[in-house]
């Protein structure tokens, strides 16, 4: 009953969002005035009234990221199963810190993660946990990699090491790694930025040279981050070559597949991520291309023991401790002692329920549909004279043309409800970036957007003047 009502409301909302504005025109002062005048919290309010008001604020005052023509920053349209799952989780409020308190929820997560671990080609003995997002998963990867490489790191800290640990990545890697290096006391400069080729892929020869030079200079190279779909341009680094080099050189290979990782679910697309099966650890977000509500990241690691070392905690007040690995049917583990979080919500249910409702083939179709819409957008843009500046089989298209002034064109596109796209900087050039993030985007949407874009550009107002 509840499910039916939620689904009906959700379908109605999806329709209204698809036909409404994409961007809000509101100031902080306007919102604060509303909150100040309605919510002094001195009087109580019926829940119906609060709900209606909050819904009105969300309809008016946000970028509608579930709009089918939101071609934005990996914020997906969400499945109805995901919405129902979030409601169930809130109602039962399971605590997943340890296995004993929530056996059903813990096993549902393990079952779901095990399914995806197989798709990634990881061994049965791997371990995986849900995270708040890709940032926490990447943080986990760095902490586990350091613990693996330097057993003394946990007790005595980085200062006890005989040199400075170094992590290798490209300029295209997610900028969250800078925060991670800062937060854990590694230092931002210990991220060694490796050059890219003309396709923005990591230059593996340069990687080898830098690691060699750093070793000779007394650094302690320990980890390489390979992108399986960069945030700006969807580029997949040469994962097989990075994996082979890391294996030879004794380095931890982390694959950041926060967005692109979902491609492994599709039999047609998975070969684009070849080499990811060599990774020591993988980040993948369910709240991006797997289309469930935020926040749902995932951290996969083939070294169960290093994960247990990195997040160990000798606590006496929690219910019976449990340990074990994904592939071992008889054994369980407590997420509390195998991940960064302590109290832990039931993050994985939305992925489990979407997968159960659509089936593996249905999920693959959702992902492939978005890849097809990306291909269509790319083709139609090229056919009308735009230049594509990134190279990826995934649905992120970065494009420009001579004389384009992207900022004003994008603003007009948003206001006219044509599409939401972002501006990106590719190899020093400002370009337009369009990513298909909704499984509800149709061919008609793509045609509508390309026509709208062409008309606005033809009007001539969004070109640079000769002098600028
Ligand atoms: C989005 C993204 C992240 C960060 O993930 P969040 O879920 O936003 O925390 C990390 N790496 C890549 C490649 C991403 O696209």
**Ions and ligands:** pyridoxal-5'-phosphate
Terminal Cα span:
61 Å
- Approximate strand percentage: 5-15%
CATH second-level architecture of one domain: 3-Layer(aba) Sandwich
Q: Would you write up a description of this structure?
A:
With 468 residues, the chain is of the alpha/beta class. The protein has a domain at 88-353: Type I PLP-dependent aspartate aminotransferase-like (Major domain) (Aspartate Aminotransferase, domain 2). Helices cover 41% and strands 12% of the residues. The protein has 14 helices and 11 strands. Strands 1-7-6-5-4-2-3 form a 7-stranded mixed β-sheet, sandwiched between helices. The chain has a 4-stranded antiparallel β-sheet with strand order 8-9-11-10, covered by helices on one side. Helix 8 links the parallel strand 2 (165-170) and strand 3 (191-194). Bound molecules: pyridoxal-5'-phosphate. Residues 74, 133-135, 138, 174, 176, 231, 256, 258-259, 285, 297 line the site of pyridoxal-5'-phosphate.
């Amino acid at each position: 009953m509840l499910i039916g009502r939620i689904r009906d409301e959700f379908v109605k909302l999806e329709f209204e969002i698809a036909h409404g504005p994409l961007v809000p025109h509101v100031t902080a002062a306007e919102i604060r005035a509303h909150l100040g005048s309605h919510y002094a919290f001195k009087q109580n309010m019926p829940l119906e009234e609060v709900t209606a008001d909050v819904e009105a604020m969300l309809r008016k005052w946000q970028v509608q990221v579930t709009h089918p023509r939101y071609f934005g920053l990996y914020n997906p349209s969400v499945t109805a199963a995901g919405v129902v799952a979030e409601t169930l989780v809130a109602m039962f409020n399971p605590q997943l810190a340890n296995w004993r308190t929530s056996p059903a929820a813990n096993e549902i997560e393990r079952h779901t993660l095990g399914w995806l671990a197989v798709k990634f080609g990881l061994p049965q003995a791997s371990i995986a946990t849900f995270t708040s997002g890709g940032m926490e998963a990447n943080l986990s990867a760095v902490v586990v990699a350091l613990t693996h490489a330097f057993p003394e790191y946990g007790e005595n800290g980085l200062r006890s090491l005989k040199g400075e640990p170094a992590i290798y990545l490209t300029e295209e890697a997610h900028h969250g790694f800078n925060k991670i290096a800062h937060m854990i006391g590694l230092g931002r400069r210990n991220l060694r930025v490796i050059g890219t080729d003309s396709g923005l892929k990591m230059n593996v020869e340069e990687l080898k040279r830098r690691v060699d030079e750093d070793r000779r200079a007394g650094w302690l190279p320990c980890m390489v981050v390979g992108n399986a779909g960069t945030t700006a341009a969807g580029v997949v680094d040469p994962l097989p070559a990075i994996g082979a080099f890391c294996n030879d050189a004794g380095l931890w290979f982390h694959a950041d597949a926060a967005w692109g990782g979902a491609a492994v679910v599709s039999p047609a697309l998975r070969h684009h991520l070849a080499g990811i099966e060599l990774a020591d650890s993988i980040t993948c977000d369910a709240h991006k291309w797997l289309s469930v509500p935020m926040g749902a990241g995932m951290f996969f690691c083939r070294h169960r023991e290093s994960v247990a070392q990195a997040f160990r905690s000798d606590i006496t007040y929690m219910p019976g401790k449990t340990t074990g690995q994904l592939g071992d049917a008889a054994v369980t583990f407590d997420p509390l002692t195998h991940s960064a979080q302590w109290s832990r919500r039931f993050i994985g249910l939305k992925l489990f329920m979407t997968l159960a409702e659509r089936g593996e083939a249905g999920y693959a179709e959702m992902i492939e549909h978005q890849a097809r819409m990306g291909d269509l957008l790319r083709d139609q843009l090229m056919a009308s004279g735009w230049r594509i500046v990134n190279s990826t089989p995934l649905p992120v298209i970065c494009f420009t043309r001579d004389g384009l002034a992207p900022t004003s064109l994008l603003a007009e596109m948003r206001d006219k409800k044509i599409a939401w796209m972002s501006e990106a900087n590719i190899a020093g050039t400002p370009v337009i970036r369009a990513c298909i993030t909704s499984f509800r985007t149709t061919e008609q949407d793509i045609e509508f957007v390309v026509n709208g874009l062409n008309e606005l550009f033809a009007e001539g107002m969004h070109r640079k003047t000769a002098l600028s």
